[in-house]
Amino acid sequence: MRDLIDEGAVAAWLAKQGVTVEEDLTATRLTGGQSNPTFLLQTGGHRYVLRRKPPGQLLKSAHAVDREFRVMRALRDTDVPVPDMIALCEDETVTGAMFYVMAHVEGRTFDDPRVPEVERAERASIYTALSRVLAAIHSVDVASVGLSDFGPEGDYFARQIGRWTKQYRASETDPIPEMDALIDWLHDNTPEDDGRRTLVHGDYRIDNLLFAPTGPTPVAVLDWELSTLGHPFADLAALLMQWRMPTGDEGRGLAGVDRAALGIPSDAQFVAQYADRMGIADMPAMNFYLAFAFFRMGAILQGVKKRALDGNASDPERGLKLGAYVPEFARQGLAAAKDG
């Protein structure tokens, strides 16, 4: 950890930002993520969270902590719950990489979308909140919050397929025929741009939200590294994709789960809730969007695997385990493509 954060240097930098450092600052590594190393900072009675870029050679445009900082600061007074942003440090000499500090938010995380920790009624309310917050993200007036330039103009999916194909090729370690076939299918079946362009989280799922210590209210949406201006169905499809994965610590999905018994909406019910909140009368078939979501996650996990092999991953052992799922994501993407 000492190679990732210099507590004394961070304390001195915080003081320059006007943050009161009452006594020796301590940093504790928060585990679980595979992207940007994250630390809990404690000084006196105050707690903050620091996120920094990982060490080593990084893919171009990856680990964009500056974008995370910018979007969360912009969303402070919107209906999207986010932590208060303290400051961004672009001076890599402070602790070895760009980082930002935000307020610590007390809350609960649910890694398992079955949410076994709560009763059925609260579980149903949590999923209602999940739909509401997703719609809130996609309803942000990007011009009024200063995010008009947060993503390029043009066809979002064509751009993303090109970007993630390049990222995948840059981190490819072994040939995966299913991934090659999925890339070809996406290139050949990208729908015509329908003009929808909103703020997109890029990795929206239940474990990237913090919920109040009691009750179903979301208190913070986290992990905005992949956020941009793009097509809102990308976020919606990412949720549906996650739910198709196996249950348990690795898959974190809902495959085979009796959702009605647990109070969890079906895919169709969730999509209908979302469409109603967004005022969309006629939702299209989701097969292309699902196929894209599986492809993009496969490309992301391939990058995690490559960083693990190169010794740059936050958790190398788990990174290799996650990387082993890339062929499965490709297979599921091809299956979704053929679903209609």
TrEMBL record:
It holds the Pfam family APH. It is an enzyme of class 2 (transferase). It comes from the Bacteria. InterPro entries: ACAD10-like, ACAD10_11_N, Aminoglycoside_PTrfase, Kinase-like_dom_sf. Residues 27-250 form the Aminoglycoside phosphotransferase domain. The keyword Lyase does not apply. This is Aminoglycoside phosphotransferase. Gene3D superfamilies: 3.90.1200.10, Phosphorylase Kinase, domain 1 (3.30.200.20). GO terms for molecular function: transferase activity. Keywords: Transferase. Its EC number is 2.7.1.-. The keyword Transferase applies.
